[in-house]
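User: Quick one: structure for sequence A, then sequence B.

Assistant: Sequence A:
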Amino acid sequence: MGNKLAHMISSWISPKASKGVSSGISGRGLFATVRIDVGETVAVKGGHILTTRQLEDLPDPLPNSEIQIADGLHLAAVRAEEYEPVMLFINHSCEPNVGFAGNIVLVAMRDVSAGEELTTDYAMFDTSNSRMTCRCNTGSCRRVIDGQDWRRDDLQRKYRGYFAWYVQRKISEMFGAHQIDIRCDTEPTRQPASVARVHMVT
């Protein structure tokens, strides 16, 4: 058992959530099965640590399994059998209920009721040049999600304390600040776990 776990690459999902369920936003999603309180750990992203070059050189890259964790560094699945264990299936929403505590831990931003889909705003962790159509259909839907949305003043105010560390550092550098404002008031109950970069939105 210990030997098997030592070689297993996966993400961690809270026992209060179920992943891979059909989503009204896009594809499959992550849903609360019971109430999740604000601040509770929802998931932890797992995967192989790869440089950007290694990621680009993968012979069969697995879509949406990658998340950037620093300049030139990423977490991703590299083999087909790792895809499902690594994926979180967290869809984008312009009114999310999940944010980041650090780089790979996701926590509830508010109390979440049983049956609610768990979503995050990609502006909290995506700094790419990609663009995608948003299908969240919330009142504040931006219609088009841009990898540079993290630069927006309104989103920086809205998600203060919930940006991934990698993105928050970039925001701090924009203003010449050195303080990194992240949530560190909660810890995952198990290791490791996952977060997914869901661009369907996965």
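Sequence B:
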Amino acid sequence: MNNKINGGLLFLTGMIIGGGVGLLLAPTSGARTRRRLTVVAKDLEQGINGVAADARLKINQVMERGWRVAA
């Protein structure tokens, strides 16, 4: 469980850093940069939502097992 969550967080961190560096080094207009930032932000949001959903699922599974053991 921790490896999957850590892997997802590392992926998101790399995505943020890579996107930032790419935007800083790429010579584009302000309007185009804003559009690119919007796309990167939406991709990031989807990635975060996916990691959060996986974490919720794993937490629920662990809690269910705990309740069964405690009963």
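The CA atoms of residues 53 and 59 lie 10 Å apart. The helical segments are 2-25, 30-70.

User: Thanks, that's what I needed.
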